[in-house]
Description:
By secondary structure, the protein is α+β, with helices and mostly antiparallel strands. The chain contains 13 helices and six strands. Strand 4 (283-286) and strand 5 form a beta hairpin. Helix 5 (94-112) crosses helix 8 (151-158).
Amino acid sequence: MPLVSLNKKVPLSLIRSNLLAPDFPMLSIVGHDIFYDKIEAFVKLLECADPRQFHSLLCLFYALTQTVQDRGLTVKPFKIKLETELPIGAGAGSSASFAVCLTAAFIQWARLQSPEADAASLSSFDFETLGQVSTHAYNCEKIMHGRPSGIDNSVCTYGAVIQFQRNEPIKCRTLGDKQFRALLVDTKVGRSTKDLVARLAQLKSSYPQIFDKVINAIDEVSLCAIDLFHRMESLDECSDRMEIECKELMNLIHINQGLLNTCQVSHASLDTICIIARNHGLAAKLTGAGGGGFAYVLIPPYESHDKVQKLNSELVSNGFSVTETILGGSGVQIHSV
């Protein structure tokens, strides 16, 4: 794991005598907390002092052990090489993508051991298996975030655009053949998701009549945005109607960012990005838990290259770094090596 400078060998005998021992607690029986405590005790045996390396190993062995228990994986000597272009602790979903890749790899390893396995079925994940990947990754996300929403692991698993509501089935929505671009803007300000979530929880506890309404308003904004995406699926990218719908979508982004500001999860750097985007006739909002990290700027399909470049240049001149991407990419995939 180059990004956290982690290169470690762990004897298989040590794994077998601890995590795979007959008396090791079953996650499905004891629940996350007791299971996590046992995984943590094992990782402490590996004497890894760096917090990022320690948490990476926690996630790895949590994912491995729950796959052994859930899928009957037979563990043999193995090597994992994991690389990412996502920064850590910036609200870009790095922990979720890490957890999804790990759990998908272990589940695929278990599928390869199945006597019913065939090449066609092993080349991709069906919807049921994707659900297992997402659930396993969500369990791993608890290590980093305490009580994660489930959104990040779902997006990383399923791809596309998802409609997510806790305890409800995932709804995947496509954008048809539309290419909605987005600029991911790195504030270069670090933050802790767990701390920001705890701060919002404290505000909700202190002022429930205010913040319950704010959270409900954010939900309504999301539902309006989903309806807009649905309407735009059949529109021509350069039509007048598309421009009208995109301007409404950008207005919703402004509203959402304002509501998040009310929740005290924004940051001066994020506010600056939003102002710069608005000055260029576009809309930006924070990602993840806020407090720094990333913002994104939505680029409608009809916007000119010159306009995007001018915005990019101004953001960079203000000390931010910018990466262009598209909305609605693919989820977790299997590739031959």
